Amino acid sequence: MTTILDLQSGIAWRSRLMPAMFRNARFHVDSGVRESGRRIVPHEFPKRDTPYAEDMGRRAREFTVRAYIIVYPRDMQGPGLELQVKNYIPARDRLIEALETQGPADLQLPLLGVLNVACTRYRITEESKFGGYCAFDMSFVEYGQAPALGPRESKPGVVYAASQISQATKNDLATGIEQAGGDEAPEEATSE
Q: Is the pLDDT of residue 173 over 90?
């Protein structure tokens, strides 16, 4: 009898799995959700039955991750085996510290790859009936890039920048001519 693990279609995605981590703090993933869309602003007008929807660009991507850290029956040694230990508390504390650190960082999820994000919130759940197990509900937002500084490249912005450069050039030329003596011929030394 064939199982799902024997199917060729099941091998492709399993071979692409990567370890989950945030700021190098590893965790297991139960589920991961990616959410985005378009920023649509609806416009409705008086005495008109047809609205107009204005597309304002892509919405920032948001990621919700259900993660867990669990004890193992024995400590395993080697690279990538940091989560396979008897005591889950150090791994839990590393993840909490990583989530509370200021600024953006790389989030690596098993199938989504590496994402530059900021953690907006998290919740940790530990229950006595599930000793040696903690679950994290984490929310991240795509960090993106800061807007460019300086004048925008609109027509009025370009005209303003050109006028500023033109005025600065005129001032520099006038200052340079005055320092060189202007239009007048240099004074000759007279001997008496």
A: no
